[in-house]
Amino acid sequence: MLAQATFPVTIDPLLSVFPVSTQTTNEHTPDIAFDAGSNRYFVVWEYDYSAGDHDIYAEILDVNGVPVPNGFTLIDTTTQYWTRPRVATTAGYMLTVATRGLQLARQVWARNAYAGQAGVLGAQFAVSTLPFPIESFNADVADQLAHRRALWLVAYECSLGTPTTTSSGR
Q1: Which of these CATH numbers, 3.40.250.10, 1.10.150.390, 2.120.10.10, 3.40.50.1820, describes 27-169?
Q2: Does the pLDDT of residue 3 top 90, yes or no?
Q3: Which of 54, 68, 108, 131 has its CB 3.0 to 4.6 Å from that of 60, i.e. a possible disulfide?
Q4: 18-59: per-residue pLDDT in tens?
């Protein structure tokens, strides 16, 4: 808290502000990551397609927040319910994780994309493979470049309340 801080205090500066989506539809739970190698942002958000089907959209933006041509990407537009996307970048790749499924049947799924070329996506894949009735949800993702390999750390909650992590290479 600022009241207990030792002065002088340094506050992270606001670097830039730019709109990502100007739609009038119900879009929420955004996340953003920056890839220093390509000088691009990758923004993900949730779109309420219907009560039982939420999708995940993404946009690649340049360093000034301008959309990259063909940079609008559909992480998920299946009939599955995807919610709460999170994104991280490393070595030019971006990984989006989200909760897939309705309550009592939720799992963590992911999809990767290449920052250097808009529209290059990997397949959707399950991150958590816990047996029913254990659910996994509320995932977050972090990146690390170690030993010249791009690594992802995905952490998520389980219905048993046990913290779980998964690590994988690209």
Answers
A1: 2.120.10.10
A2: no
A3: 68
A4: 666 666 667 888 999 988 888 888 999 999 999 889 999 999
